[in-house]
Write a structure and sequence with these properties.
It comes from Salinimicrobium sediminis. Belongs to the NDK family. Its cofactor is Mg(2+). This is Nucleoside diphosphate kinase. The protein has about 150 residues and is an alpha+beta fold. The chain has one domain: 2-Layer Sandwich (Alpha-Beta Plaits). The chain is built from eight helices and four strands, in the order αβααβααβααβα. The protein has a four-stranded antiparallel β-sheet with strand order 2-3-1-4. Helix 4 crosses helix 5. The protein is globular and about 45 Å long. The model has no long low-confidence stretch (mean pLDDT about 95). The structure holds inosine-5'-diphosphate. Inosine-5'-diphosphate binds next to helix 5.
C-alpha cells in the first residue's frame, strides 16, 4: 500500500524537455534553463547531445504521417540539443504552460516559445504532452544512472 501511494504521489511530477537546435544555435541555453529553474522545476537529468536522423525519426514516429515529418526530423538532428528531465508538482501541464503554444505567434506573452522560437517548426523547446510520454521520452535519452 505504501509503495502504491508513493507511485500515485510521484505520478505527474516529471516531464521531459529538449532545448531544440534553433535555440542552441541562437545562444539561448542559459536563458531558457534560468526560466525553467526560476519557474520551480528541478533538473533530474541533463545533457548536451545530438540526435542522429534515426533517433529523430524514432523520437517523432507518432508524427510519421504528418506533412512536416521530414522537415522535423531534419531540423531536430541538425545540431546539438539540451535534453533534460524536470521535476515539479504537475510537471507535464505546468511545463506546457511555461513553453506556450506550438506556434510562437499563438504563444502567450512571456512563454519560452514566445520569447525564443522562430517558427512553428523551429520552436525552441519540446515538452512532453503526457505522463506516459514523459517516461518514454526520458528513457529514450537517459539511463537510470543519469537521473538524480
Ligand atoms: P508540440 O511540440 O507543441 O507538442 P506537436 O503538434 O506535437 O507540438 O508537434 C511536434 C513538433 O513538430 C512541434 O514542436 C514542431 O517542432 C513541429 N511542428 C508541428 N507543427 C508543424 C508544422 O505545421 N510545420 C512544421 N513543423 C511543425
Amino acid at each position: 500500500f505504501a509503495a502504491k501511494l508513493k507511485i500515485d504521489i510521484m505520478a505527474g511530477n516529471r516531464t521531459f524537455t529538449m532545448i531544440k537546435p534553433d535555440a542552441v544555435e541562437n545562444g539561448h541555453i542559459g536563458a531558457i534553463l534560468e526560466q525553467i529553474t526560476a519557474s520551480g522545476f528541478r533538473i533530474v537529468a541533463m545533457k548536451l547531445t545530438q540526435m542522429t536522423r534515426r533517433d529523430a525519426e524514432k523520437f517523432y514516429e507518432v508524427h510519421a504521417e504528418r506533412p512536416f515529418y521530414g522537415e522535423l526530423v531534419e531540423f531536430m538532428s541538425r545540431g546539438p540539443i539540451v535534453a533534460a528531465i524536470l521535476e515539479k508538482e504537475n510537471a507535464v501541464e505546468d511545463f506546457r504552460t511555461l513553453i506556450g503554444a506550438t506556434n510562437p505567434e499563438d504563444a502567450a506573452e512571456g512563454t519560452i516559445r514566445k520569447k525564443y522560437a522562430t517558427s512553428v517548426g523551429e520552436n525552441a523547446v519540446h515538452g512532453s504532452d503526457s505522463d506516459e510520454n514523459a517516461k518514454i521520452e526520458g528513457a529514450f535519452h537517459f539511463s537510470g544512472r543519469e537521473m538524480f
